[in-house]
Amino acid sequence: MNTIKYLYSYWGSEHMRPKEFLALVISNGFDGIEINLPKDIEFERNFHEALNAVRQVNPSFSCGLQQVLGVKKETPEEYLDIVLKRLDRLVPYNPTFINSHTGKDHYSFSQNCKIIEAIEEFSIQHNIRVYHEIHRGRFTFHSLSTLKYLDVFPNLKFVGDLSHWCVVSESMLQDQADIIDKIIPRIRHIHARVGFEQSPQVNDPFVPEWKAHLDQFVKWWQSIVDHHLPYRDMTITPEFGPFPYMPTMPYTKEPLAKQSRLNMKLKEYLKTSLK
Length: 275
Description:
There is one protein chain. The protein is α/β, with parallel strands linked by helices. The protein has helices at about 20-25, 40-55, 75-90, 110-125, 145-150, 165-170, 175-185, 210-230, 260-275, and strands at about 5-10, 30-35, 60-65, 95-100, 130-135, 160, 185-190, 235-240. It has an 8-stranded parallel barrel, surrounded by 5 helices. Helix 3 packs parallel to helix 4. The longest helix is centred in the middle third of the chain and has 18 residues, at about 110-125. It starts with a strand and ends with a helix. The mean pLDDT is about 95.
């Protein structure tokens, strides 16, 4: 029987060492992790050791690794070289999947296609699933233009984070249901975060003023689960982020909600809401 596995994001837990982080994840009932490994040789060594120790006890523990790079001025060729080197560094961890932030919104269609093609070849060569995240700034930044890439690469698979398309379109995508229906079969991993027309993250999805938005996102996530669960396990990362995703009070910079509490509460909420 296929199941939904819930992963906990390292985003916002950067103060924690690997063993400490994994202990937190397991003690709070998550089935795995999702992490963009920092460039820190000691951290990577400790992370690998801690991950292997967890897998010895629980071989089905999920590990999603991210390919997320900072913004810099570079040619598409320079960008691709860095991406492929980054992906090669992730191979020894035997990830469950790689979440790739692929391409750039200001690269041309053909330039992004060359980048996608190289990453897809990496996926086949190493037998590692690579999912391209729906995200502002990447080739997937816009709903309709993303469909054009599927004409060239019909087997592309995505990390579904529809909050970004809400921001790009300044809407709750209520007039794009036909596009969403075409994307849902491609989504293999969900980033569960509630956004709205002006931001990819509300301050707290469980307060009354955001209930309609929470309900809409749960409706999308249910549609994704309904499509895939008969055939495969699904993974979901509750992904409320720290500042600047998390709004803060002026001057004091006090977060309006506790990020870790939101992600843990959302996991429990989805366990009872998604059928």
